[in-house]
Each structure stands twice: as structure tokens, then as C-alpha cells.
Amino acid sequence: MTKLKIKQSPTLPEAVVMDALGHIIIILSDTPAGIGWPATDNEWPYADLLKQRWSQQKDKDDLTPLTTHLPNAAGSHVTLACVKPDISAFDLLTLARKLCGAQLGYNPSEVMLLLPGLDEILASRITEAVAAALLAGVFAMPSFKSKPPKPKRLATLHVYGVAGVNLERTFAEAEGNNLARYLTNLPPNELTPAMYRQRIAELAEQNGWNMHFFDNKALRRQKAGAFLAVAQGSADDDAGIVQLCYHPPKTTRTTAKIPAKQRLCLVGKGICYDTGGNNLKPAKNMFGMHEDMEGSAVALGTLLALTRLKVNFSVHCWLALAQNHIGPKAYKQNDVVTASNGVTIEVVHTDAEGRMVLADTLAMASAERPDLIIDYATLTGTCVYALGTSYSGAFTNRDELMFDIIRAGRDSGERVWPFPTDSDYDKELESDIADVKQCVLAGEADHILAARFLNRFVREEVPWLHIDLSAWNHKGGLAHIPTDISGFGVRFTLNLVLDRGVMDKHKKIEAS
Ligand SMILES: [Zn+2]
Fold it and tell me: Do 325 and 185 belong together in one domain?
């Protein structure tokens, strides 16, 4: 984990301080009355010079920073932007990625963030966004190059213009997101289900999580036929379902709007490689399919972030680890299998393996009757067609939570948008031979059908949110994240659970 230190000062720096630093990010407020430039140079050093250069910059808009140098001995690299007070979380994080990316390219050991004349709320939001962008930007992704890239040196961020911004949450979210992105970036021969389980066991040891592994033998006892149908195609007998449990320590924080004794359940799809199975994917679509475990990595990263924050409720995490292979034993179209909750499934397409492994995992997770289940899965192409890769899809069995779900996406900068989950969609999944079809071969809205299919494995009394991770990979980075692989979901979930208190809210609604 990065050891970035963040020093905050409510006052603005002297010229001598700015001259000593080679890397400076400046953000001003763009109010309806105009950009918040001070009247004279007395307010902060180089203000008049930068004002002149800003006004000379052609085609500028809110999200295009000015990049320039100060006429001092260090030739300080300056990136400067002006933001409107009501800038969205997503736009602010995107701007922070650009401003920080321009500085991190020089691999500095120190960066200054200068916030002249901003109100405290905006200054705090900007500090949070810049810290988030730096923590994402300096984190080293796996590299197997014989000459590995130089590690990022950044050790300190000096903030001038605001103090007392609590960044504990930002650090926790960054650690969770970085873990999710790191694991997802690993090549498939470095992250088989067995290797993944080993890494998870190490994390469990370090973080005090109880870990239980349901191997194929244990899953046969559970009659988890949907999961096993996918796992049976692998030559190695290493697939299985991991259960991790975080229990609040005796000294918990009272920050969350959540009473103790509640239990959150995180579920993730962990297909370490997806060939498509017998319905083999073409090369173009199979390339990158080691990323098909990102849902499990996001669940794990979220668990890690909540652990760092010592939340006062239990978190259970269920990870479905398998590969979808071709081979003589691989499951095939028209097979009929029985899931652990007794539902029989007619297999229609072997590339719809995600919903098969999730079916049993959700059935087992919901049997514990948690207060909320959130599952994350790189599940359907149609969700990407519907939303692109900037948003992820949200589906829930509790319509009354939808407003909070949208708000959590908007406020966290990891945006989600809801889809309908009405029961009449089930007609398309009617099977002549089994309780339900896994999917359809020709049809529309597979993301909705997938959610309706999964709904069969979640107990009705358990509130459930399914996130179809269409934003799992966004070319060039997304919001504050500079890599294509986004690790989308940790910030969203913490906002939903900690800030919006949905676990408690739905209880109150259901009791009324
Ligand atoms: Zn697939």
C-alpha cells in the first residue's frame, strides 16, 4: 500500500514555498460572477501571471487544464483548472485524473495542491478528488516486463487553502479499488482459481477475516449443480466458492448511519478465464477474458475498504471462483442441472456461465438472510450496448431503494443506472423441460433476463442489488482511475451503505 502523506494548511503559500516545489496543481472557483482570481499578486504568488496565461489559452473549458511553467529556478510545472461550485463528482474526479496525470508523468516525490479563495465545501471535495486520483495514479499494476517500470516516487501532497479534510475514507476506498484492479490485471496463468484462493487466504490472514472454501466436493454436498456445471469443464479441480467473514472489532466507529448487528453480503463473479465453453468465443471476444473475475475482485476490494474503516456491522463476502473451459467434460447446451435451492435450469448457451456460478452463490448467500446482498459481475454484453462503459447497470428486488442507488452512483462518481426487473420478462425464460432457461439464444435485453434469472436464487425476503459491471473496463480510464480496468464499485458501495444507510432504510420502509 502506498504511503502517501497528505499535509493540509488553511493558508496560502509564500512565493518561496512555491518556488521550492516543482509540481503544482491549482484549482480556482468558476462562479457565475467569474473565475475566482484575486485582485492582486498579494493574495498568492504568480496569480497575475497565471491569470494572463489562462486568458490566453484557446478553446479552454472546465475540464481542460492549463499546463504551464513558473519563471522560477525550479521551473515549477503548473496544471491549473477552474471549476464550477456544482461540478459533479464524476467530472471532478475526471478533472483530478487529468491534473494529477500531467504531474505524475514527471514522477515527482512531492506535489502541491493550491486552492485559493474556495469555499470549504468545494475545497474539501477537490482535496478528496485529487487524493483519490493520486492514490490511483501512483499504484503500480502488475508488470512482467524484464525491465519493470520505475516505481512512482510520490511521497507527499501539500494542500494549501484548506485544512482538516478527513481522507480516511478516500484511503480505504483507494486500497480496495487498487486491490481490485491489481487482481483483474493479472494474466490468467498467474491467477487460476487455485492461485486466486491462495492470495485471498493471505489477505484473510492479514485482515482477520474468517475464510471458508467450498470446494467441488463440498458443493456436491450442497447440490450446487449450477456452479458445478461450469466447474466440471476444468482439468484442474480448483474451482469453488470462497466465503469470507468480517466481524466488527470491539472498538468500532460510530460513523456509519447503521445500527450494529446488521449484516451486509457482497457476492462476486470470479471467472478467472472465460473461453465461452463449448459455445466458444471468437478470438476478438475471448481476448481479455481474464478480466471476467473483476466482480469478485470488486467484492473483495469493498470488503477490504470496509475492514479498514472498522465498520460496526458484519460483512460476508462470497466469491465464485472458476474457469469456463472447453473439453470433453464441459457442460453443454440442453443439459439440465439443479441448483442448490432446488431450481432446475435448462442450459441454453455455455458462455452464460456467470449467471450459473452466481445462481448457487446467491442461493447460499441469501440462505443466511443478510440485511442486504450486493452482487458484482461482468455479466452481459447487452448491458454494455445499453449503457456503454461509463456506467454500470443496477437491478434490485426492492424498487424503493432505486433512488438511493442512483444517488450513490452520482455522489460517488461511480455511476449506475437502473433497469426494470418486472416479472413479465420471465416469459422469455420459460423452459419446456426445466423450471427456467438459463438465457435465450435470440432475444433482447439479456441483462434484464440475467437479472430475472438470478432473482430465482435470491430469497424474496432478502433485499438484493445486482450490479452488471458494464463499466469494468473503460478505454483511457474512468473518473479518477487512469487504467482501462476500472475496479468500478468500491466507492459506489461505500456511499450506498455508509452515506445513504440503505440497509437500515429499507427495514424502516418494510416495517411501516
Ligand atoms: Zn461467458
Answer: yes
147 and 222 fall within a common domain? no
C-alpha neighbours within 13 Å on the C-beta side of residue 37: 17
205 and 137 part of one domain: no
Rounded Cα distance between 253 and 371, Å, is: 20
What CATH number does residue 453 fall under? 3.40.630.10
- Of 447, 415, 316, the closest CA to residue 369 belongs to 316
How remote is the CA of residue 269 from the centroid of ligand 1, in Å? Answer: 11
pLDDT band for position 11 (cuts 50, 70, 90): very high
Annotated active-site positions, please?
281, 355
Q: Residue 143 corresponds to which amino acid?
A: S
CA of 184 to the centre of ligand 1 (A): 16
Question: How far apart (Å, rounded) are the C-alpha atoms in residues 192 and 321?
Answer: 9
Distance of CA 352 from the midpoint of ligand 1 (Å): 5
Whether this prediction's pTM lies above 0.90 is answered by yes
Question: Each residue of 444-497: pLDDT tens digit?
Answer: 899 999 999 999 999 999 999 999 999 999 999 999 999 999 999 999 999 999
* pLDDT at residue 55 in the model: 82
Around Cβ 296, how many Cβ atoms within 10 Å?
A: 33
Residue 483 CA, ligand 1 centroid: distance in Å: 23
CA atoms of 284 and 441, how far apart (whole Å)? 20
What pLDDT digit, counting tens, does each position of 123-175 carry? 999 999 999 999 999 999 999 999 988 999 999 999 999 999 999 999 999 99
Distance from residue 277's CA to the centre of ligand 1 (Å): 8
Same domain? 230 vs 336: yes
Domain range holding 189? 172-511
